[in-house]
Amino acid sequence: MASYSEEDMKEAQREFSLLIEKGLDNDTVIKRFDLISDKYDMVLGVMEYKLPKWVGDNLASLYPGNKERVNILDVAAGTGLVSVEMRKHGFTHIDGLDPSEGMLAQAKKNNLYDRYICDILADNTLDIADNTYTVVTVVGFSSEFFKILPVKALEELVRVTKSGGRILMSHFEYIFESEVLRDNLSNLQDRGLWKLEDKKIMAETVKGINGHLYIYKVMTK
Ligand SMILES: C[S@@+](CC[C@H](N)C(=O)[O-])C[C@H]1O[C@@H](n2cnc3c(N)ncnc32)[C@H](O)[C@@H]1O
Fold first, then answer.
1. 172 CB near ligand 1 (under 6 Å)
2. Domain ranges in the chain?
3. Which residues of the chain have a pLDDT value below 70?
4. Which residues contact 213 (CB under 8 A, 6 or more apart)?
5. Which candidate, 80, 199, 215, 216, has a CA 20 to 30 Å from the CA of 10?
6. Regarding the domain delimited by 48-218, which CATH topology (the fold level of the hierarchy) does it fall under?
7. What is the largest CA-CA distance in the chain?
């Protein structure tokens, strides 16, 4: 495990609280990610952030063979920590979507995605064809906005995923307590667009905070 100086640890705590601050609008959050992009991996390393590895391990269990046939879209890709973990398991076809140019620039340095899509997931239509991906991952999406992610955003995830494909969403436990998010996730299940296949809990996915992983299966379209 990497070792960090006392100064790094203090800075990481400070930066991390700025990223998860409550009440910020999406534009402000994206600007904060731009500013912190060159320090992001250090900050999350200090905070012992484990969601990307957890998601990578779960994906490998879901797709034990033929990984080269699994096309993946990583939403809120950031600097590509999730891609790093998926690649360790042999997944190679991965596109990344994120609105922060700074975060995507870090991912580009390490050649972590095939396609870099600089866009938000919100109530817009993404520049991605229907049924493109076998898997969509959404890991650590900006907290305040994920809590109120609109139905249209979830429909977009389903639209770009193939029938029978999977959407893996992982975040901190308290984020999934959001009533708006829960209602919107259920909305798609009630309409037969997806089905919750599994829900997992992991202790301490970042210092002092538990994490959840929701695995949705996209229904036949
Ligand atoms: C905490 S980082 C997570 C990055 C990566 N998934 C990880 O686990 O390390 C949150 C990312 O969400 C992105 N983001 C913020 N608003 C977004 C939106 N509306 N749609 C997609 N991504 C967004 C930010 O730019 C940032 O890169």
1. no
2. 6-45, 48-218
3. 1-2
4. 54, 55, 58, 168, 169, 170, 198, 199, 200, 201, 202
5. 80
6. Rossmann fold (3.40.50)
7. 53
CA distance 31 to 33: 5
Query: Measuring from atom 22 of ligand 1, which residue has the nearest CA?
Result: 76
Residue 179's pLDDT is: 97
Is the separation of the CB atoms in 198 and 167 below 8 Å? no
Residues with Cβ < 8 Å from 79, sequence gap 6 or more? Answer: 37, 40, 41, 103, 106, 107, 110
142 lines ligand 1 (CB under 6 A): yes
Residue nearest (by alpha carbon) to ligand 1 atom 13? 76
pLDDT at residue 173 in the model: 95
What is the distance in A from the centroid of ligand 1 to the CA of 29? Answer: 9
What is the pLDDT at residue 18? 86
